[in-house]
Amino acid sequence: MARLISDGWGDGELMFRFIHAADIHLDSPLRGLERYEDAPVAEVRAAPREAFENLVGLAIERDVAFVLLAGDLYDGDWKDYNTGLFFIRQMRRLHDAAIRVFLVSGNHDSDSQITRRLTMPPNLTHFSSGRPQTSELPEYDVAIHGQSFGSRSVPDDLSAGYPQGETGRFDIGLLHTSLNGRPGHDDYAPCTCEGLASKGYQYWALGHVHKREVVSQDPWIVYPGNLQGRHVRETGPKGCSVVTVEGGEVRGVEHVDLDVIRWQQVEVDLSGVATAAECVEPVAEALGRALSDADGRLLAARLILTGTSAAHDELVSHPDRWRHEFRNLAVGLGEPGAWLEKIVLETRRPQDLGRELERSDALGDLLRLVAELEAAPVELEKIAASFADLKKKLPLPLSVGEGAFDPTDSEKLRERLPAVRDLLLARLLEVEDPR
Fold first, then answer.
1. Is residue 417 helix, strand or coil?
2. Which residue among 5, 94, 245, 391 is least packed, with the fewest CB closer than 10 Å?
3. Cα(48)–Cα(90) distance, rounded to whole angstroms?
4. Which strand (E) or helix (H) includes residue 82?
5. Which of 148, 142, 96, 141 shows the shortest CA–CA distance to 122?
6. How far apart are CA 61 and CA 343, in angstroms?
7. Is residue 19 within 8 Å of 225, Cβ to Cβ?
8. What gap in Å lies between CA 323 and CA 287, rounded to an integer?
9. How many angstroms separate the CA atoms of 203 and 196, rounded?
10. Considering only CA atoms, which of 173, 226, 180, 178 is closest in space to residue 203?
11. Nearest 5°: CA angle at 166, between 161 and 171?
12. pLDDT tens-digit profile of 304-361?
């Protein structure tokens, strides 16, 4: 029976709500967390499950008609059957509340990726990968169309095979796609807004892109973003979209935050700060604001220090001391707590290099060499090529993943020259004048 909503809209019109979520990535392995100092490994790894439990709880609380999951429910093949058992338990919660669930698989949980199988509850419809399928819900005048990924890489426009919408019916397209391309996401099942609109559907429930985006409102084409940020490139609130339909039209799309850990990049401008000790207060204030914005969630933050500051030399000369000082600040913020994933120093020293470059000692020679390398691409390329053996000896955390360093990349070396110059100045001038 249709769930009629009485929110003061209309009189006797059929109104209902549904939830659109995507990119759950249950039991994502999140490799490499252990190498981060004081990382809350257990909490981060449990977060996707807890966020999914929040999603199910929201569906029951809002008494929605159905739930749409637009791909990447899993993060690759299950390590064991516990992943599937957890999902089944959540589906049974929805089954007991008479809420149906419609699911397509994406690149991470395609047919070729998931080898273990369990019998799912009857309230779950998992669209096949062979061809587009349609599920009709006559009590809501709704038809849901979907097709799963058969393999991790799908170069074809799956939406092209979806059937046309029908007059007098609310049609929904459930699709995992990169659309016409999104930064940071592989180009899977590409399609266009014009192509989607030509189907005559009222709502396209998309997945694959982890950042929320309302692509269009005529028709509605929506990426809800992923349910839980998994690393510092997935910052800010994460959750799902709650869609209200009245009289066969979308009345509203509400984004609801469901994440349990909030990732943020916290940038602090230290311009004008005279000493490293004076950096403590602005950093503490910035972290406090970020924790407040996390609204009761554990804060996982990357602290980025910027600006032209006289404190620069102290910070780069004693990085361990100040890294631990700032981590201590995070620990002292209180519940639910904050963890600094990384501290990035992008400050610059205010000193005019003119006088230092004129020095006739070894420091002057070093600074002039750095300046020459900045202005001489060919020489820098020769130096980079000589680092081939060094590259082979770099530990794995330095050579792969985010922030990887390739000493044979001359452009990367050029980008780091200012930091090298400042470090030389800080260390060598400190020897000259220990404070």
1. helix
2. 391
3. 13
4. helix 82-96
5. 96
6. 40
7. no
8. 14
9. 10
10. 173
11. 70
12. 999 999 899 899 888 899 999 999 999 888 888 899 999 999 998 776 556 666 677 7
d(CA 52, CA 34): 24
- The residues spanned by each domain of the chain are 15-259, 261-350, 355-419+428-435
Say if residues 258 and 25 touch (Cβ distance below 8 Å).
Answer: no
Structure confidence at residue 207 (pLDDT): 96
Amino acid at 320: D
Give the confidence band of 395 by pLDDT, cuts at 50, 70, 90. low
Token pair of 13, please? 């019109």
Check residue 384 and give its pLDDT.
67
Fold of 15-259: Purple Acid Phosphatase; chain A, domain 2 (3.60.21)
Position 292, amino acid: S
Question: Cα(387)–Cα(391) distance, rounded to whole angstroms?
Answer: 6
The pair of structure tokens assigned to 100 is: 């149906």
Residue indicated by tokens 């299950």: 78
Maximum alpha-carbon separation in the chain:
89
Task: Indicate the Cα dihedral angle 15, 165, 213, 262, nearest 10°.
Answer: 60
What is the C-alpha to C-alpha distance for residues 414 and 182, in angstroms, rounded to an integer? Answer: 29
Cβ-contact 38, 44 below 8 angstroms: no
